[in-house]
Structures are given as structure tokens and as C-alpha cells.
Amino acid sequence: MRPPLAKPPPAASPRRRRLPQPLSPVAGLLLLVLASMASLWTAAAAAAAAAAAAAAAATADTPAPGLIYYQRGYAPLKADGYGSVEQIHLQGLAVSPRAEAQGYISFSRQDGLDLDVHPDTRLGAFLPPNTSGMYIPHPQPVNVEFFFPQALLPRYDALTLVAAGQLQLYPAAVRPATPPPVGFTLPGVVGLLAGLHLDASRTALLVRTDAGTLAHVLLDGSQASVTMLEDPAPQQVHIAHGLGPVFHVVQDGKYSRVGAASGLQESIPGSVGQGSLRQVLATRAVTSDPTRQDLILLQANGTVHICPNQIAGDRCTSPSLSISLPAGVAAGGRLLNPPVLGLAQPLGYILYHDTASNRVWRFDLGPGATAVTHTRRVVLYFDPGYIEPTNLRMLAFRGPDGTPAWHLVDDHRVHFTPEAFQCQSDRSIVCATEGTPLARGWSCIAGHAVTPLSESGLFCGGCTTSMTTALHPLEEAHCERCALSGCRVCTPEHCLVCAPRESLLVDLVTGVPACVAQCPAGWRHSGAFCRPEDPGPQLRLDWQPVEVTHPATVTPGAITGIGATRMVPDAAGALVMAMPEAGQAEPAPGPRARPLIFHQQNAVLWMAEQPDGSLAGQPVTGVPVAGQVTGMLELELPDRHNGWPVLGLFLCVDGKTAQVTVARCEAAIAPAPGARCPPTYETLLAENYSECHFQRLAPAAVSILSPGIVRVASFDSSARLRLQYWNRQATHPASLDPAAAEPYLIMAGQQRTFIQPAAMDYGDPRQAALPDASSGEPLLKALPVSMPGPGPGRAELVVTRFATDPTEALWVAVHFPRGMALHGKTAGLDGNEQVLARLPAAWVPSNGRPRVLALDLHMADFPSALVLVLKDAVAVAPMHCPAAGGGLCWLQEAITLPVPGEAGLFAPPGEAALVPVAGPPGPGKVFSLLLHQPRGQVLRLDARLPTCPEGTHATPAGCRACDRTCAACQAPGPSQCTACPPGDRLQDGQCVPRCPAGQYYQADGSGSDYTCHACHASCHRCTGPGAHQCTVCRADWLRTEEDLCVSQCPAGGFGCPATGRCAPCSAHCTECALAAVHPGGCTSACGACAKGWLLADATKTCESACPPGEFLPAAAGATACKPCDPACRTCHQSADFCTACPGEAALHPAAGQCQHQCTPGRQMPVDMLHEGTPGREPACVACPENCAQCPTAGATCVRRADGAIDCPDIRTCGRCAAEALLLQGQQCVFECPEEGFFADRDGQHGPVPSCVACHAECAASCSGPGRDQCIMPRTGAGRAVGLGIGLTLLCLLLVGGAVAVFLNRGRLFGAGPAKVRFLRRPRPACLPAWLRL
């Protein structure tokens, strides 16, 4: 606004020439008119100044309007988006009734929202997609419109008006009850306006009649009574509930109350605003007394009156506070506060919805509602592309403390207040403010990602890609960038997941991973890894048919299932619990558990392994089932009863009944070594399914799978069973950390794979809102598996699936190293995808899902393996981990073995069909598994280490080099030698020289004695004195191509520890060092290039130009490329100045930054072309300041060959940001120029709010486009009047002077009489119209 104009100084009196005669009468008249006008203008100025002062005084205590930003829920309010959301039970929680095709109304309720599992509700998902037990059966088609009266108790009965006067009440019930509807005939009733269930049998209604009046209806059981109300019922009538209970009714501006139970109507004379009201609301804004209410009355002119702390019969005649709406807010809106019958505590504010602009205003109230402390417009963020709804309302949802919390909602999302969204207490998020608008009203702080239901309790407690929390506890909300370039997941020392364009190259000697842009010679690209072209000998798999010896009492027949138990048979053949003999290890899962075979004749055989690998069967009794067992899984529970172990038995009976039984020793038998105790069985669960399959989740938890349904049965420390249920899950879940006190599960649903707290049930609506577990494509038809890692308690998360075409199926695995431990995320995890095996498409199961077991190998560097079991084959993929446990674990490619014969395997999707056994002894034994075929044949799968050449040792992943001191070995390290080089002798697994280091021995002629002589100085061991006779070089020395030992390789070479030799650098490289080790050789990392070549940072090779993802610094003489920031795909002259973005991100060329999308209200999308190459990418160009939409049609940015980018400079605007106005199509302003324009804020005179030019005949400003809307400039009342007076005085003086001169021209100039000609002179334009006469 301009500063006030300074008062002009008084004009000096002009020197006048004394005239011989007085002025004529005309001149005197003009002077009189002039004086009168001056008086009138002065009076007008005084009046205007007084009015302005009065207005200033009236608004002096009203807070200036501001903004308050609400936070949009992360997920939709209702997962399936189907059905409206209603506040039926006023003192309860909102529900969603939905019409089902089967002919009933079901209710989606908040009962499953278990805040004991996790208290965070900021996901915004409160209603599950499934339905609860409450429903309403009805015979009508599903498109019948139901009316749900609100209720003072949990009653969900519905009404329909099927024809004029024909009312039906449908009682809500719990399935399978089907109560019939109750019919009522109410002649003349044509519409239902409001309703309230008073108790279990009575319902009060306000209805419209065909006579155009209101009527009260009381339904009591099967009876109905009707009371006609006095006033006519206009089309627009507002009804609200209040204490009493009563209906507060406003019609045609008149306010009355109708008793909900009695139907008596009471007019309210003397009420404030009576006759001009729009709405009366009984709520709890400031009053906390449960027997009182706050009455809020909204007048048609927009004034809001508040009468607080009223009892049920009070009238609002003297409001404690009256609020006027801010300027520009339409008066035809409505109040949004909840009814008093549903509020236990006051809100402390009033919400007003301006329905014309779809904006909400909030008035914060002081104590007693005597003042407004803040007047703020509520900034709401709706979903992109989602039409801003007019159905804004407040509904009650379960709050973090379990009590109802009222939130503002639209048809799609919950909008949280900053307090409810924890904007101040959650340090992992930042919420929108007037200076920082955000897309959802909130965002994660830099470096953090949305982490729903995390253990830390922070909504953004996890780290984004390329950030890690490995050095800090998760609850500190601290993330730092990976130290190694190109990493997506890292530890402080190693990179575990590389950027998309790079591959992991793992040093096979040290296990250290590195990210490389291309695989070196001798290696091939496979998924996320570089793998050796020739992996050498692999793990050996063999099938062995197992001879099962049946006792004479059992007729051999088809096998229905197999299992394993720690129990043993006593002399009578009954299974008993047994303690280990003295000095014997206690039985543990795995081979120490003995196989059980179940037959069709319900016979159970306890199998004893024979030295030749056959099985001798002994009939046993005591298995607590009545039927055929098709699967069995046994757990040793953490509880110990009387010192004895407690066993949990999971049995699938007759292929469909899942039975959970606990076996305990109740006898008073001391658990001494070798003691036996007959168990007591207690069956805790027996449920029928279409199928039942078991998978171990944790030491005391098992998942039970039937098609589309998963139940998890877990035991606490007292062997009490806890059951959880998930519907629509396609396969077994997996535990991310089986040993954790509060583990997380990864679930594989029909459409996505997600991570949730293990204790969360399917009914919790937040489950359906959880985002996908993977940052890549959704993992469909997948099976999650938790693999034992190195060290106790550590697990590695793998998700496997099939990718098929008509002829081939790829067994694909996505491995998420360390699960959530390195970044804390529960969604969007980055992993290493790889192809484990290529299989015939015909081998894939009909449901398209793999059947995989994680097998514990109990090996330090190969702790576990994935076993894929198909009807036609078995595949095994070992997982290799560094023995030290600090590096990267990675899966090896699988070894596949077809099943012999045509019968195939019995391969259900679970663990129970695989029984680990000891198998026959032999070198290189890794594991043995028992499986069976449908026709009764038992097969054993033996896995053995490969046979390796001398100088290497066998591992499940192939042959690896021995320690340099060994000639042959059985494992890595200097203490695992099995043979030694010449001159050494083997002692306790180590090769010990016969002569001291640096000497060689020379036998005498008899062969019985020898003498030691000095080696060459370069040798550690040798066969003679020459430099070329070294067998082992000195420590850290290397052998050259000439077979000499040197301390440092010559120029152009580097040392390779895998071979102990010097190898040449790569092409055009003058200096290099070791980069990675692979079987039979090493790769180098160049440190300096020949002249004219540039050193690439990622590959450490010499290139003619920097590769994508790197840049050449602008400094003179730079010859080494530097990596771009991970946020950039390419960059120019600076690591963080992006010139291309990864994925679908858009580039902001002016700032050199990548962003997920163009900032709404600030930028517009354009295409960016590449000079000299095809293709285009998204980019964002800045609009003029405060411009929300600027024209960019046909505009493009061009990236030149040198990396620089040229973009157009947008100088025009099509639409301004909120509150701003478009000026002449180029500039966005908040106030129009004071002259020549008026503010069209509602867009009535153009397509967008803008500054519109005044009419051409307007001298200054105007109030509209017409010539009759010209006004003086808007410079304040006093200054406008003063300017008008000055202009009028000037015009009158000019006219008066001209007349006086004309009439006295003879006297003035001494001329004689002359002829006078009267001319029509033009009137000055500055005169008012009444003076232009």
C-alpha cells in the first residue's frame, strides 16, 4: 500500500492588480458557489473520516485472519473405497454400511483397530475392507436407499420409505440371525428428514408430509404415533440433535424445538436472530459439563452467535460472543461441529464451511466463549485429481488412547489437526505452515521415508534410499548418507545394494562387495550381481530311494504324510518324552528328531535310521488324532513344565482339519538324564479348512495355510496359544526377525506384499493401507522366506516368485539384506533381484507360487539354503555369508535336480512335507531330506560338497582357493590344510616348514638326512638359492611374469592376491591397484590414465568421455571424472547439479534438482530433448512468482552435448496461486494497482480471478467494468476528498477568472467599446456534470 500523501502546503496569496471597478454579479455568483462547494466537500471528508475511525474501532479486538494447515491422512479412510461413512452411534465410532449383492446391508466397523499392537492412527485408514458381524438382511434390490437414524446406543437399525406412507424398519442383527422387517403405514409421509434411536425399541423421526408440513413420528416396537407440527416444511430445513433429547429445527429462518420422545414443538421467541437463522447447533465447543451444551446459532447474514454452558431448556437470548465472518466469506455456509450427544469433551473451536468456495474457517474460542483467540482458514489437501468434495463433515474415529476422536473428513480421506498429527512431537516429519506449503500438509524430513507402524513410533522413522541408520538407534530419527558412492543400502563399511545401473561384484576371497558399472572379464551380469562365467564344480544333489521296513503288523500301503518327533517309543510302543542320556546333547530340531510315517490304515511308524540309510519302522501309539494325518510339525516351546520340555504338535488330519495339541509331562518324574515320561496331551485348536499346510515362523510360532486364508498360532512363555487370522492371503508369511520380542511379518497378499507388526490381525484397517514392501515393482504371487543368517538371531529376508513365459520359468529371488535393520523402513525396501534357476514352464504349480523351505545348514560361511520343492524337481540355492558376519550375504545360483520316475513328489506349500534326517555318513555331507511320492515311495535328497582340484576346497557354492600355505585343504584358513608344499610337513592342520623360513633343505645322498641352506632374499620358501627358485614369496611380495618375487609390481601392473602374481593394468592406464578378486584372477582399479583419456570413477577405467552418472569438474586440468549425486542420473560440472533424473523424476533445470513431480503452483511440466539423440524426459520450468499455472504448450528444454541445458523463460501466467490475482496476463499480485483496475476475486468477469481494467472513461479506479462504476482512487477517505476539492477549486478558479477577464477586458487593457461576439466555448472536462451548463 502506498504511504499516506503529505498535506500540500498552503498556497501563497497571488498578487492581484487593483481593478478600477468591482467584479460583475456573475463573478460574485461564481465565488459564492465556490465557497458552498468547499463547505460540502469538507463536511463529506469529515463524515468519511469518522466512519473509517468507527470501523477501525469495531474490528480492533478481532484477530486478523490467518491460516491453519491440516494434515491429510496417508491412506484412504476406507481401504476399498466402497460405501459411505456414517456416524450412527453418536457416542461411538463411525461405521460404513454397504449394500451387498447377497441381499443384506453389512457394516464395516472400527472394532479391529487394535491400538495395543501399535497406537499410531496417522495412516488415516480406520475402516477395513471386510465386514463385521453386524448386518441387515433385506429382500429388496441392493439399490434401495436406506435411512440410518442416529442412535444414543449401539443400534444400527435402518429404515426405508418404499412408497408414500409405507415405512419399513430393518433390525440389525448378528449373523446368522435374520429378523424380519417391521412395517408401518403412515399416510401422507413422503420424506424422512431426521431420526434418533432413543433406546432399544423406540425411534423418533421428523418427516415431511404431502401437505408440505413437518410431522413427528415415534416408532415403539410395532406401533407408530404421529404428531403434526405447526409450521409448514420448506424445501430447505435444518435439523440438529440436542440434550433432552430434542430436535433443533430451523425453517424459513424460524427456530423451534421438538421433543424427540414427546413430539411437542416449542417456538423460541426472543432467541437471538429469530426469523433470520440458517442453522442452530447444539454442541460442545467450550463446555465440559456433561449435563450442559453450547448453542451456536448461524444467521442468514453470516453472523455466528454463541451461548455457552446451557441446560437442555435454555434459550439463547444474550450470546456471550457474536462472530462476523471474514471479508469475502460467503454467508450461505454451514457449521460442521459434531452434535453434543456425541461429544464427551469440548473441541475448543467452531468450524464454518463456506460451501460457495468449499473452504473451511476455524474460530478458536477463549475460556467461556467470550472471545475469539484465532480466526484461521483451514487449508485442506485433497487427493490429486479428486474433485474437492462438498460433503465435509466431522466423524468419530478411535484415537491413540482408544477413546473416540472427532476428525474432519471428506468422502475419501481424514484431515488431521496439527495436534492430532503430532506435528510438534514427531521429529521425523515437518508440517505445512504459511511459509512452507506441502503437498499433503506434511512431509518427511530430509533423508527420511514414510515408515508406517514402525517400532520407533516415528511416522517417518526409516531412511530413504542411499541413507542408513546403521550407526544410530532407530528412535533417534537420524539418517546419514552411505559413505560409498552408488549405494542404495549400506553398512558403515560395505555397500549391500547398488544403484540400478550398477552390479555387485563380490570378492570371493574376502567377501567384500563393490558396486561396478560393468562386470569385468570372466564375469557375467546376472540380476543385481556379477557372477563368474565358469563357477567351477557345484554342490552335488542326488536322489536315493529309501527302503522302509514295515513290521508284520502293518500292511504296506500308500503314505498319507510324514513328520518328525523328539519323542521316542517305550517298550510297549507308546510315544514318550525322553531326556538325553548323560553326556548326550539334548534333542534339537533337525536330524536329532526321528521321522514318523503316517499310513492310510491310520498306522503310525516311528522310523529308526540304519547305517546304510534305510529306515526301520516301529508301530507307535499315542499320537492324539482320530483320522489320517497328512502333515505334522513339532515345536519345542519355551515353557518347561516340571523341568521337562513342552512340545507343540501341529497336525493336519484328513487333509482339512488343523489340530494344535500340547504335550507335557505331568508325572512326578525328575528330568534326570535318560528319564522317560508319558506325555499328557491337551488339544487347543481343531478347525476345518479346505486344506491345511504348516510353516514354521519362529521358534514358537507356526502359520497355518488354507487357500486364501492364513492363521498364525503362537505360544507365549507359558505355552498359552494365541491365534491370529488373515483373509485374502495367498501363502505363508515370514518373520523378519524371528528372535525379536516384537517381530514384524512380511505378508504376501493377492495384489501386494507388505510388512506389518506380527501381532496385527486382519481386521485392523491399517493393514490394507500398508504400502508395498519393495521399492521396485509390486511383488505379486510371491512367497516371503526368512533365512537363518550368520550368528544367532540374525535373519535374511528373501521374497521368491516365478516369472514365466510359454516355454520357460525363471525362479526369481529378491533379497533384502539385513531386512529392516540398516534403514528402519517397513515399506519400500531396496533389494538385490536375481535369477536363481531357469526351469521348464510346465514345472510351475498351477497357482503360480513357489514352494520354498529355508534350510538351516549350520555352516559358518553358508548358514542356510533355499530349497524349492516342485512336483517334478528340487532346486537348492545356498546363501553365502562372510565368516566374520559383517559383510554381504548373497544367494548363489541354484542347482536343480529332476525327480526320478513319473509319479513326482508330494509337494504341498509348507514345511511339514520335508523332514531333515542324518543320512548315511560320507565326506562332504551337507544335508539330507526325506520326501515322499503320492504312491508311497520315500525318497532321500542328499546334498554333498563338490570334488575340487588340488589347491582348492569345496563349498556349497563351488570350489574356493586354499590358503597360500596349503597345497590342499578342506576349508579356508591356514589351519585347514590337508597337504603341504615340498619342504613342509603337516602338523595339526597347518603346514610347518622342515627348514626355517628363508631356507631350503638339501637331502644328502643317503636320503636319510638333509641340511638347510639360505634362499634368495626375495623368497620366503624356495627349492634353491636362485631368485627364480622361490616357491613362496616373502610376505606381501608378488610373483612377476618372469617368476621373480618383487615387493612392488612394475609400472603398469598391480598385485593379485588370488594368484600371488603381478597382473597388467587395463587399457590406457598408467597406474592401477587391486579392485576385486574372482576365481583364477583379479580386476584392477585404474588410478591414472594416459594423456587424452579420462579416469571413470565407477569402473576405474580409462574412457574417452565421462560415462553417464559422472561429470568432469570445471577446474582446469581435471582428468578424473567424479560421481554425480545419487539423486541425479547425469550432472554437469557439479555433483548435485542434475541434468537428468532417475526413474520418473522430473528435472528442475534452473536449480539442477530432481523432484518427484513439478511443484504445484510454482512449476509446469515440459519435455526435455537431447541434442543429437532421440528421446525425451520430464522437466519443470518455473512460472512467474505466485503463478499456479502458466502456459507451456510447445515449450521444451534442450540438453546440449556438453551437458548444459537451455530452457524457455516463461513470462506469462494463466492462473495465479490462491489469493493472488492475475494482472495483464503476466504478473500475479495480491492487490490490484490503485488506478485503472479493480479486483475480480471470484472470477465473475473472466476465466480466473484477476485485476480487470476499468472502463475507458474512468479517470482513476473503479468498482467494476461499467462506465457507471467509476470511482475515485482507493487512497483513503481523507485523501480522496482532498484531491476532489483541489480539482474542483482549480476548475472553478479557471472559469471565474476567464469570465472576469472577458467582462472587464476594456478596463484591463484600456481599450474602447467594441463589438462583442458570443462564442460557444468548450466546458472543462474536470467539472462535475451539474456545472457543465
TrEMBL record:
<feature type="transmembrane region" description="Helical">
    <location>
        <begin position="1280"/>
        <end position="1303"/>
    </location>
</feature>
<keyword id="KW-1133">Transmembrane helix</keyword>
<protein>
    <recommendedName>
        <fullName>Serine/threonine protein kinase</fullName>
    </recommendedName>
</protein>
<keyword id="KW-0812">Transmembrane</keyword>
<dbReference type="InterPro" id="IPR009030">
    <property type="entry name" value="Growth_fac_rcpt_cys_sf"/>
</dbReference>
<dbReference type="InterPro" id="IPR006212">
    <property type="entry name" value="Furin_repeat"/>
</dbReference>
<keyword id="KW-0472">Membrane</keyword>
